[in-house]
Design brief:
The protein is mainly beta. Helices cover about 15% and strands about 40% of the residues. Strand 11 and strand 12 form a beta hairpin.
């Protein structure tokens, strides 16, 4: 069904109730004091960008199991006590789509180490390099850092965000934005 939305340029162009992603994935943000564990993505979607560890959910795997596995595969750490704070629905104009579950935790064992997929970087929370990240991160990552749950729908043309809709869960009203750029 997501191919039907391949040429959508605005979130209102999509029937999100019937939208289905090509892939399901996860992102994990590990916090330690006033630092956040980010990665320099070395391959795959987002190559060259700074992000959190994560990846595609394997068949028969839950999103949380995927998040734990990806942190181990990408950084060699064992995360636990994951807090599910967000869900993203990304639709790209080329037809690709991804449903991403976002977690945070302060519980991990091991020392983050570089892998073929990612190079770890502990970053001060007040110095997050948003200019090196996906455009949407500066909108929702502060919510995650505050422990605020959210859902969001995004339209991207390659690396460029065209439109988005963000619902802050538990808030009095949804925060909604229109076209970008």
């Amino acid at each position: 069904m997501s191919g039907a939305w391949a040429h959508a340029r605005r979130v209102d162009d999509i029937d999100w109730a019937n939208w289905q992603a090509v892939d399901t994935a996860t992102l994990v943000f590990v916090l330690r004091g006033d630092q956040i564990l980010l990665i320099d993505k070395k391959r795959g979607l987002g190559k060259g960008k700074v992000n959190g560890p994560g990846g595609k959910v394997d068949p028969g795997e839950t999103a949380e199991q995927c998040a734990i596995r990806e942190c181990h595969e990408e950084l060699g750490i064992e995360v636990s006590a994951l807090e599910h704070l967000g869900e993203h629905r990304f639709q790209f104009v080329d037809g690709y789509s991804i449903h991403c579950h976002v977690y945070r935790t302060g519980h991990f064992q091991g020392t983050p180490a570089e892998s073929p997929e990612a190079a770890p970087r502990w970053t001060a929370i007040d110095a997050i390099p948003y200019d090196l990240m996906w455009e949407d991160d500066r909108i929702w990552l502060p919510l995650l850092l505050e422990g605020q749950a959210f859902t969001a729908n995004w339209i991207f043309d390659g690396d460029r965000m065209l439109d988005h809709e963000l619902d802050v869960l538990g808030a009095e009203r949804a925060v909604r934005s229109g076209s970008v750029k």
